Amino acid sequence: MVKVWRMIDNVVDPRDQCQRNPPEPLKLEDLSEIGVLYYHVPEKSGLEKIAKERGYDSRDEITINREKMPNYDEKIKNFFEEHLHTDEEIRYIIDGHGYFDVRNKNDKWIRILSEPGDLLILPAGIYHRFTPDHDDYIHVTRLFQGLPKWEAHNRSNTTDSMNERKEYVQKIESN
C-alpha cells in the first residue's frame, strides 16, 4: 500500500524520507482531495486497462540512475525543481523507488513513496517534483495521450496565471 506523509519544510537531502518529527502520515483521501490518483497495479494487464480507460495511447520507459542517464546530476536537479505540466502526468513504477512530492491545498509538501506496481496520476496544473531515493534507481513507464511530451513549467508568477493552474486551483477549492 502506498506510503504518504507531510514533509519537513527544510529539505537537506531530497533523497531522504524527509519525515516530520513526529511523523505525519497521510491517507489516500488526502491525495484524492488534491486530485492525485493512486492505484496499485501489480500486473501489466491492469496498467493496460487504466491506460485504455483514460485514453493513453502512447508510452515510453525511462530508467533513472547514474549509469544509464546522461547528465544524471543535472537531470535529477531539474526533476526536483518545483513545476507543473499542462497535461496530466501518469507514471507507473516498474522497478526501484522514488519520491513524488505534491503541494496540498495549504501549499505544504506531501511526499509519496513510489514503489514497483504503483501508478500515480497527477492532474494538470498541480505543483510537484520528483527525486529517486538513496538507491538512485527507478524504472518508470510514462503514459501519454498522443505523442510523448514532457514539458515542465517551473513555478513562478507566470505559472500561477496559466489556465491549467487556474483550473486546477478552482477544482480543488470546490472540493
Automatic annotation (TrEMBL):
Q: Which residues bind Fe(2+)?
A: H83, H85, E89, H128
Pathway(s) of this molecule: Amino-acid biosynthesis; L-methionine biosynthesis via salvage pathway; L-methionine from S-methyl-5-thio-alpha-D-ribose 1-phosphate: step 5/6
Which stretches does the entry tag as region Disordered?
155-175
Is Nucleus a UniProt keyword of this protein? Answer: yes
Molecular function per GO: acireductone dioxygenase (Ni2+-requiring) activity; acireductone dioxygenase [iron(II)-requiring] activity; iron ion binding; nickel cation binding
Major place of localization?
cytoplasm
Q: Report the domain of life of the source organism.
A: Eukaryota
Q: Where found, per UniProt?
A: Cytoplasm; Nucleus
Give the compositionally biased regions (Basic and acidic residues): 162-175
Query: What InterPro entries does the database record attribute to this sequence?
Result: ARD, ARD_euk, RmlC-like_jellyroll, RmlC_Cupin_sf
For the ligand (Ni(2+)), the binding residues are H83, H85, E89, H128
Sorted keywords for this record are:
Amino-acid biosynthesis, Cytoplasm, Dioxygenase, Iron, Metal-binding, Methionine biosynthesis, Nickel, Nucleus, Oxidoreductase
* EC number annotated for this UniProt entry: 1.13.11.54, 1.13.11.53
Q: What class of enzyme is it?
A: oxidoreductase
On cofactor binding, the record's note says: Binds either 1 Fe or Ni cation per monomer. Iron-binding promotes an acireductone dioxygenase reaction producing 2-keto-4-methylthiobutyrate, while nickel-binding promotes an acireductone dioxygenase reaction producing 3-(methylsulfanyl)propanoate.
State its cofactor.
Fe(2+); Ni(2+)
Look up the record and give one Gene Ontology term from the biological process aspect.
L-methionine salvage from methylthioadenosine
Q: Which reaction does it catalyse?
A: 1,2-dihydroxy-5-(methylsulfanyl)pent-1-en-3-one + O2 = 3-(methylsulfanyl)propanoate + CO + formate + 2 H(+); 1,2-dihydroxy-5-(methylsulfanyl)pent-1-en-3-one + O2 = 4-methylsulfanyl-2-oxobutanoate + formate + 2 H(+)
Cellular component terms, GO, for this chain's entry? cytoplasm; nucleus
Question: What functional role does this protein have?
Answer: Catalyzes 2 different reactions between oxygen and the acireductone 1,2-dihydroxy-3-keto-5-methylthiopentene (DHK-MTPene) depending upon the metal bound in the active site. Fe-containing acireductone dioxygenase (Fe-ARD) produces formate and 2-keto-4-methylthiobutyrate (KMTB), the alpha-ketoacid precursor of methionine in the methionine recycle pathway. Ni-containing acireductone dioxygenase (Ni-ARD) produces methylthiopropionate, carbon monoxide and formate, and does not lie on the methionine recycle pathway.
Q: Which family does it belong to?
A: Belongs to the acireductone dioxygenase (ARD) family.
Q: What is this protein called?
A: Acireductone dioxygenase
High-level lineage: Eukaryota, Metazoa, Ecdysozoa, Nematoda, Chromadorea
